[in-house]
Amino acid sequence: QVQFVESGGGLVQAGGSLRLSCKVSEFALDYYAIGWFRQAPGKEREGVSCLSARAGSIVYTDAVRGRFTASRDNARNAVYLQMDSLKPEDTAVYYCAANLMRTVCQSERGTYSPTQHEYNYWGQGTQVTVSS
Q: Which string of DSSP letters, residue by residue, matches 39-77?
């Protein structure tokens, strides 16, 4: 019944930028940890970034640190993922998801380390393709 709406994917050349958006109407995103995930063909789904509740910590996986920026707009009940300096290896389906059991994002030595089954609600995914 809970539906996340994701948008912003597309095709870009290496070095380009995209901004992904994720919105939901059934509850306030600011109360929970909200994660961004991605899954490339033939690879396991991995955590990309996570925003802790109420202006808490924001964490990233090492592969995107310094290139991707996650943010929140509480007035619009939306979260965003600004992706700069995109690389072909960033090509994947990107998802947003809410963890209703946590307010603080999981991390290990400052790196996003999610327990994926704890994330209760997931978006439909948006395709990001980066060409050489």
A: E-TTS--EEEEEE-TTT--EEE-TTTTTTEEEEEETTTT
